[in-house]
From TrEMBL:
The keyword Ribonucleoprotein is annotated on this UniProt entry: no
Record field: transmembrane: none
CDD domains noted in UniProt: cyt_P460_fam
Signal peptide interval: 1-22
Keywords: Signal
All residue ranges annotated as the Cytochrome P460 domain in the record: 83-177
Species name: Oceaniovalibus guishaninsula JLT2003
Protein's UniProt name: Cytochrome P460 domain-containing protein
Amino acid sequence: MMKTSIYGALAGMIFMGVPAVAQETAPFGTDEDADYAAQLWEVMTGLGLVGEGAMQAAPYPGTDPHGMMLQTFYTDAEVAGHRGALVVKRNYGPEGVTVDEVLADPAAHLGAVTIMFRRAQDYDPETGNWFYAKYLPDGTLDRNPADMALAGLVGKGADAGCIACHQAAGGDDYLFTTDADLTVAVE
C-alpha cells in the first residue's frame, strides 16, 4: 500500500503546476483516450510487455516522475488498424530499491507503466503524433488530482505533464532515452 501512495503523490506533483482552466479543457483524459489506452494495454499484454509473465530486462536507475528503477522496451505495435512505434517504460520503486530486488519480485516493486505510442500522422503533428498513457500495475489508467485519466495528449499546452516534459528532449522525437529512428514501415 505504501508503494501506491508514493506513486499517487508523484502523479499529483506532476500536475500541481497545471492551471485549473487547462485541466478543464485539457486535450487528454477523454473516454476516447481511455478506450484507446485500453486497446493499447491489450496489445502490450499480447506482446508480453505488461501483465503477468511479462518479459524482463536489466533495470537501470531512474528518477521522478518515472521511478527509481526503470525498464524500457522499444517495439512497434498495431492498434485499431494503425502500426506505430511503441515505447514502454516500467516504473519501479520505492526510493532505494535495487536491481536485484526488482528482478527477484518485479510485481512487488512495479508502481506504474508509462507509454508513448506514435499514432497516425494526423493525430497531433505538433507533438510528434505521440499518444501518452500512465497505467497502474493492473492496467487501469492512473488519474490526476482533477480525476482525469492520464491518457492522450497529457500535458499539451501545460506547464507539467508528459508532453510538457518530453518536449525538452533533444532532437524532435520527444525521447530522452534513445536517438534511434523509431519510424515504423507501414505495410
